[in-house]
Write a structure and sequence with these properties.
The complex is a heterodimer of chains A (about 625) and B (about 200). Chain A is of the alpha+beta class. Among the domains of chain A are: about 160 residues, PH-domain like (Roll); about 60 residues, no CATH class; about 100 residues, Winged helix-like DNA-binding domain superfamily/Winged helix DNA-binding domain (Arc Repressor Mutant, subunit A); about 90 residues, Arc Repressor Mutant, subunit A. Chain A has 23 helices and 18 strands. The longest helix of chain B is centred in the first third of the chain and has 22 residues. In chain B, helix 1 crosses helix 3. Classes of the chains: A alpha+beta (about 625), B alpha+beta (about 200). Chains A and B meet through strand 17 and helix 23 of A and helix 1 of B.
């Protein structure tokens, strides 16, 4: 199967495999199969990664997300778009995966019409005219009701060889009369035999081809004649250079303008494209034809370029490939090596084995440093080399920063931990040049950044949000995020704020909250005010059982004691600013009350409100 | 006018006799709350406390500057006190509709309401009974003792042995006059005489 289901991250972006990198994103993309639109896959984001081309729907991302493994792609084709037809990138599946006919189709087609739209020529007629020939889906067999002669599908689990009188049979869909078992069994067997015969006799498929051909020629001709404008009033096809209709004299300029808008206009998003659409889509269907990405807001050309590059690079091969032989590896294993250094150190290897104790340790350290030197030296020789050995360099960088963290332990361990994570975070960056140009590129960048941020925050491995007590100010997040980007492609504060504001719209699992003072904080969506208040109150209730450190004149068993914002910040791992805001929020809701003293503000359980009613019972 | 803490009878009003409500020993009670619902509840509690305290001590008016140092506004055991400004807030709230008009600034009734600033708001009436209510009480007593159509002096009403058991015994003369005015308006009494020797006749 060509189209695969796609797993999404919490931020509704494709979850990337290890080593997979994001290459390009474009919104306002529709999906075609053959020349038919796939319903409910018509308005979404296209993500191109080093391994896959993905489609994620805007409306129902979880349901309508599919990906095509680039390793299954035979070749891509680009169609620049014409008049109302958007630019499209067509992906042809590899021949081995397809039926004999469909692999023939691309060969046949260019001969018929070498026009700029070959992708439209072949494909789904096959699907609609004959059942797909690959592994026979049993549902394609039909039995004809002897009562009303309605052709019903034979149930998929029906096996004529094992069926007996007890096998449940569904009644006729039209008249509701149960068919005799023999009747259905006959139909099933007939369908089986005809299907087995099908690969030999391509009779119905030939029919399909001929219809394709005629359609293709018709369309090809249409495409040649097309460079003319239909008069909006009398539908006469005028020569393109005319400004008014030859027939009725109506102005054609508006029609021309509209055309320009559709092609290049910045804000025109066509929800409905005029192409025919496919009745229903079943992802499990094997007789899949080529898949087209239709770029309704531009970006197709860049997508195509990057796709071509990705197909050339074949990053997915690396996944299973053994690691590049490194000097480090060769020196330790002392195999054939392949590297001069390794060969050179081979002789000393014998000596190393004998040396034990501190001298041995020192020697090992020395060799390690030497190897690192070589890795770094090789990597930075030129950019290409850096790209290929990026993995090792990152590993090395992480190792170094880990060592640095150990060295200045008393410094700030958190910062160094963040630094070491930064390299691994490189994988998920969304940068401006990764995104499609044209109309919506700016908003697209923001929305991608927004998703990126949500991923960054909710990533369990990093636990950015968790470490901050589930809530952190936007400014802190901005700093941490930019730091994690490793100092490249930094995000501007303005973009950052905009991206954060999009969380709600994109239904991401984090939310931006504005406190009364105007402080902006980030917290998980499930973290509501009620929860915060409940945890605050639980804490204050605990204090009823702990005598306060200093002398106090009130009944602490009954009232507990007041807490400062510092105490709350310590207790919940919040920053002081956040603690202040949370406490004030709880006060606003009537859960807490305050006491202003010379030595500062303290917050208490609110006995002023419910103290009145319940005091009699409590005392 | 400057009848500061005019303690009238003073017979039973011992200092320690007053039972303070439980929230009097709750430290945040002495900080005015910014949150609206909490604040309303707190002001209500304060209003109740002040009225109960004044009723107990038979106080009819308070001078705030002096009162903030008394145990009404100052909980010495707790080491907390309501500041003068917050006390003014409380009284101001009691003066308003929300507080049931249980207090009134002395001297502010004439014309300049509040405009003269904090100086004008130095003392206030505390109406643990409103003048209308006092009028009702006095009328009820007159009814009960069959003194309709007799003339009584104000001094008699306040200080005579006959009224000793009554709540208005030892009342502030100023407040008594206001209460009688209410009765006059209702046509139930007539006040006559000069400044020092005022008499009242009930119908």
């Amino acid at each position: 199967m060509f189209l695969r289901h796609l797993d999404l991250t919490t931020a509704l972006r494709p979850s990337l495999l290890p080593d997979e990198t994001l290459l390009f994103v474009q919104d306002a993309v529709g999906l075609y199969e053959g020349k038919y639109k796939i319903p409910s896959y018509q308005n979404g984001h296209a993500y191109l990664t080093s391994h896959r081309a993905c489609y994620v729907d805007n409306e129902e991302p979880r349901k309508h997300a599919v990906a095509i493994d680039l390793k299954d792609v035979d070749r891509p084709e680009f169609y620049a778009g014409f008049l109302k037809s958007s630019a499209k990138v067509t992906l042809y599946p590899k021949a081995s995966k397809r039926s004999s006919l469909s692999s023939r189709a691309p060969v046949v087609n260019p001969q018929i019409s070498p026009s700029p739209t070959p992708p439209a020529r072949h494909g789904s007629p096959l699907r609609s005219v004959t059942p797909s020939p690959a592994p026979p889906p049993p549902a394609s067999a039909t039995w004809i009701c002897p009562i009303c002669s309605f052709s019903n599908p034979v149930p998929s689990n029906f096996d004529p060889s094992t069926a007996n009188a007890n096998t449940p049979l569904p009644p006729c869909l039209a008249c509701g009369i149960k068919p005799p078992l023999v009747h259905v069994a006959k139909a099933a067997i007939a369908a089986l035999t005809s299907r087995q015969a099908a690969p030999g006799t391509i009779a119905p498929q030939n029919e399909g081809v001929s219809s394709q051909v005629s359609e293709a020629t018709r369309q090809g001709r249409g495409a040649e004649v097309r460079p003319s404008f239909q008069c909006p009033r009398c539908t006469f096809e005028n020569h393109p250079s005319l400004l008014t209709c030859e027939m009725c004299g109506a102005s054609l300029i508006s029609a021309v303008d509209r055309r320009l808008e559709t092609i290049g206009g910045p804000n025109v998003r066509r929800a409905e494209s005029p192409g025919p659409s496919l009745g229903n889509l079943s992802l499990e269907d094997d007789g899949k034809e080529c898949i087209k990405f239709s770029f309704r807001a531009g970006g197709g050309a860049v997508f195509f370029e990057r796709l071509k590059n990705a197909l050339v690079q074949r990053k997915w091969l690396l996944q299973s490939a053994p690691p590049v032989p490194t000097p480090q590896l060769s020196s330790s294993t002392t195999d054939e090596g392949g590297l001069a250094v390794a060969a050179g150190s081979d002789s000393s290897q014998g000596g190393q084995r004998k040396v034990v104790g501190i001298a041995g340790l020192e020697r090992r350290g020395h060799e390690l440093r030497k190897n690192n030197e070589i890795v770094i030296g090789n990597a930075f020789e030129d950019l290409e080399a850096l790209m290929t050995s990026a993995k090792e360099v990152i590993a090395l960088a992480e190792q170094f920063s880990a060592q640095a963290g150990v060295a200045n332990d008393n410094g700030n361990p958190e910062a160094s931990a963040l630094l070491s994570q930064s390299a691994s975070a490189l994988g998920l960056v969304t940068t401006k040049d990764m995104l499609g140009s044209g109309s919506g590129s700016d908003s697209l960048y923001i929305s991608e950044l927004s998703r990126n941020l949500a991923e960054f925050l909710t990533d369990d491995a990093k636990g950015v949000l968790k470490r901050e007590g589930g809530i952190m100010s936007l400014v802190d997040l901005w700093a941490v995020f930019n730091r994690a980007r490793g100092g490249v492609e930094l995000v501007s504060p303005a973009d950052f704020a905009k991206a954060a504001e999009l969380w709600d719209k994109l239904k991401l699992p984090v939310r931006l909250r504005r406190f009364r003072s105007g402080l902006l904080v980030v917290q998980g969506r499930e973290r509501t005010d009620e929860r915060t208040i409940a945890s605050l109150l639980a804490w204050l209730r605990e204090l009823h059982d702990q005598p306060p450190e200093e002398e106090c004149s009130w009944d602490w068993r009954r009232y507990g004691r007041g807490v400062t914002t510092q105490e709350a910040a310590e207790r919940f791992g919040w920053s002081v600013g956040v603690a202040t805001e949370e406490l004030e929020m709880a006060e606003e809701r009537g859960a807490l009350c305050r006491e202003q003293r010379l030595d500062g503000l303290r917050f208490w359980e609110n006995w002023l409100v419910w103290g009145n009613g319940s005091s009699g019972g409590r005392v | 006018m400057d009848s500061t803490t005019s303690s009238g009878g003073g017979g039973g009003g011992g200092g320690g006799g007053f039972a303070f409500p439980p929230h009097y020993s709750f430290p945040p009670f002495f900080t005015l709350q910014p949150a609206l619902t909490t604040r309303a509840s707190q002001l209500h509690s304060w209003s109740q406390l002040i009225q109960a305290y004044c009723r107990h001590r038979r106080l009819f008016a308070l001078s705030l500057v002096d009162a903030v140092d008394t145990d009404l506004f100052c909980n010495a055991a707790l080491g907390r006190r309501l500041s003068l400004r917050d006390a003014r807030e409380v009284i101001a709230w009691m003066c308003g509709k929300e507080g049931g008009e249980r207090a009134e600034w002395i001297g502010a009734g004439n014309a300049a309401k509040g405009k003269e600033g904090a100086e004008a708001r130095a003392a206030c009436w505390v109406f643990w009974r409103r003048p209308e209510e006092w009028a009702g009480v006095i009328e009820g007593w007159v009814d009960a003792t069959g003194q309709k159509n007799t003339v009584l002096t104000l001094y008699e009403l306040l200080e005579s042995d006959a009224t000793k058991s009554q709540e208005f015994h030892g009342m502030d003369p100023e407040l008594l006059k206001r209460s009688l005015q209410v009765l006059v308006k209702r046509g139930k009494a007539q006040v006559f005489g000069s400044e020092d020797s005022l008499g009242v006749k009930f119908f």
